[in-house]
Design a protein that fits this description.
three-stranded mixed beta sheet, alpha+beta, binds zinc ion, 6 helices
């Protein structure tokens, strides 16, 4: 990645809640498509118990929890590697997948933005600037990640 790309990502990663930009080519590559429904349920149960049914970003408990895969991308080897799976509440999860999830549909957008502002202690103007950086980074990554192999275990 270029120095500018690294700088954008470094600045985004200082936020408590920020979108994990992943190459578009990997959107459908996920654990839940590989595993049976039963095995997926077993893994989710283990993750939720390990995380004490608490969102691992904002700390909320007693809310709907999602199992979120944390992927690492090795751009030089065009490799996608599963690093962890964590429990997230719905607004945190929608923020992580900013722009490519139901969370950015009009009906949910306000909740997603408000949650981001609250968690990061930022303003709506900050959010607008942040979104531009996320999409710039996402566009750069899509161009760099044309082919990939997937190694999830
Ligand atoms: Zn949360």
């Amino acid at each position: 990645m270029s120095e500018a790309t690294k700088l954008i990502e470094e600045n985004l990663s200082k936020l408590k809640l920020w979108a994990n930009t992943v190459p578009k080519q990997t959107f459908q590559v996920n654990l839940w498509h590989v595993l049976s429904e039963k095995d997926g349920d077993i893994i989710r149960t283990v993750i939720y118990k390990r995380d004490n049914y608490r969102c691992q970003i904002c700390g909320k408990k007693s809310v709907q929890i999602h199992a979120h895969e944390q992927w690492k991308f090795d751009y030089s080897k065009e490799l996608q590697i599963l690093e962890d799976i964590i429990s997230l509440c719905t607004p945190c999860h929608y923020n992580i997948h900013l722009g490519y999830s139901g969370g950015f549909e009009k009906s949910e957008r306000e909740k997603v933005i408000t949650h981001w502002c609250n968690i990061n202690q930022k303003t709506r103007e900050d959010f607008s600037a942040y979104v531009l950086n996320v999409f710039a980074l996402s566009t750069i990554k899509e161009k760099k990640f044309i082919f990939f192999s997937s190694s999830i275990f």
